[in-house]
Each structure stands twice: as structure tokens, then as C-alpha cells.
Amino acid sequence: QVQLVESGGGFVQPGGSLSLSCLASGSFASLNPMGWYRQAPGKQRELVARFTSVGTSNYADSVKGRFTISRDGAKNTVYLQMNNLKHEDTAVYYCNYKDYKPSGGWYDYWGQGTQVTVSS
Fold it and tell me: Which of the residue ranges 25-34, 56-65, 66-75, 93-102 would you say has the lowest mean pLDDT?
């Protein structure tokens, strides 16, 4: 069982920055895929940034050059640094962890979400 707790969301003006944190606890493998998704009102949940199972990172085209995913293994924490925020970045941001179950394949764990609102 894995527990994920996000923090760092809030209100910011366009062009501003926020840093999100995801603290993982429980039984997890640090090399498993882990990242950030977001869901805006009326839209599907979408990938923002993630680490793959081989340690590389990738990003949604809409956030490339503005967002950076990182992690601190000692603190069991994954971060999302968000710079030059835009109105369209407004969403609930969710931390995600993928665990492989031999009986059923990959299983997604989610945090509770943290609200990011970009507005002037």
C-alpha cells in the first residue's frame, strides 16, 4: 500500500511560480514510474510530468520549458516546479505512483490532489 500526499498548491498570478511536493509513504519502489497529473474543470485528467521506470523524465507539450519534475529519494518526495504559470494551468494537480501487480498489471495510486489557480 502506498500513500501520496500533495502540498504546495495555491493562488498565483500569471507569470508567477509555484512548487508542488508529493510525499510518499508505505511500501513502494523508488524506481517505479511516478509523476504528476492534473485535471481542469470539464476536462480529462492529463499527464503533466513523470519519471519513467528507467529514470528518464517526460513532460506534456503544454508545460515543456516551464515545469520541472524532480525527486529526493532520501525524503521520499517528488517535486514539480512550475514557472511562468498561465491561466490554462489552473487545475487540481495529482501525484501518481504506478505499481506493477503480477496478477493485474500496472496499478495507479493517487494523492488527494492540490488546487492550483492562476488568475490576475
Answer: 25-34
* 49-54: long-range contacts, CB 8 A cutoff, minimum separation 24: 49/80, 50/96, 51/78
Distance CA 13, CA 72 (A): 28
**Is 67:61 a contact under the CB 8 Å cutoff?**
no
48 burial type by CB count under 10 A (0-12 exposed, 13-18 middle, 19+ buried): buried
Q: How far apart are CA 116 and CA 94, in angstroms?
A: 11
d(CA 55, CA 93): 22
Q: Are 115 and 9 in contact (CB under 8 A)?
A: yes
Q: For residue 24, give Cα distances in angstroms to 41, 84, 91, 95.
A: 26, 27, 21, 9
Instruction: pLDDT band for 86, please (50, 70, 90 cuts).
Output: very high
Overall average pLDDT of the 92-106 stretch: 91
